[in-house]
Amino acid sequence: MQRIYEPQDLIEAELLLGMLASEGIEAFISGQHLAGAVGELPASGLLGLMVNDRQAGKARELITAYNGAQPLPGDEPESYLGELVC
């Protein structure tokens, strides 16, 4: 198993976990039960996405593509030009 990514928070971790699962990559979140201890533990480095060694390269590629996503031209509302609104 390899730690391939450090998500900002549990919401991002769950979103990426679902995206990886949809691509057939088994992953799990390490440290998710430590998030409640923020304040007593360091605030960063608690969460990590873990995947099998064989799937680590593909998982990293998918996460890189996710992080680099841009809205399609003309797909954003007029009041939010250049911003991705979810």
From TrEMBL:
Residues 1-65 form the DUF2007 domain. It holds the Pfam family DUF2007. SUPFAM superfamilies: GlnB-like (SSF54913). InterPro entries: DUF2007 (IPR018551), N-reg_PII-like_a/b (IPR011322). This is Putative signal transducing protein. It comes from Pseudomonas segetis.
